Amino acid sequence: MRPSFWSACGGKKPDVANFQSLVLALVHTYGYAGIFVVMLLGNVAMPVGTEIVMPIAGAAAAAGHLSSWVVAGAVGTLGEIAGGLLLYALGYYAGEPVIHRFGRRAEHELERVHNYYERYGRGTVFLCRFIPFVRGIASLPPGISRMQKRYFIAYHALGSAIFCFGLAFLGFSLGRHFTAMLPLFHRFSLVLILVALAAIAALLWIRRRNNVQASL
């Protein structure tokens, strides 16, 4: 007999009063379709805990509740791309008119953001895929600044694929021991934030140094 979803993830069913528990119940009920919807929501600023959902999907695949962690990673990646495109489109088509209503200062700030994404945005889009909380809203600024679509899609998709496949494989490898590792995942999320911020700062410093040297 196939184990239940919650035992597949290594423990008892979480408290349904918790929002993330409801999200996981969606994955439990609808499988891959649930993963797609949850990852989409996580990329339009909904606090669904995508960094936890994908490892749980991998753990469920290890116990036979889902057919494959690879399919889970692929579906999660597609959900992330769909959500990112929705938020990007919102910024692209609605962001600039709203900003113009706030006057010249807001327009000046918009121009600064646009210039930033023209110079550094590709790497930033990629790195933001690995920062919890930030990753859920990171597609809006590129849309507002009208970053070229092909670059946004390419770097967003690449970062999302690494994120989804990597965490799904990790959950699959841990299997039934996943629940015991949850506290480490939360700590790991904080480490990811620090590493990503340090990488962004280093990237900006290197680019600025190269620009200064080029102007001499």
The pLDDT mean sits at 75
Shape: globular
- The CA-CA distance between the termini, in Å, is 72 Å
Share in helix: over 70%
Q: Which sheet architecture does the biggest sheet show? A: none
Low-confidence segments, given as residue ranges, are none
Number of strands: 0
Oligomeric state of the chains? single chain
How many structurally independent domains?
1
- Write down the secondary-structure element order: HHHHHHHHH
The percentage of residues in β strands lies in under 5%
Number of separate helices? 9
Instruction: Round the Cα radius of gyration to an integer and report it.
Output: 19 Å
SS-based structural class?
mainly alpha
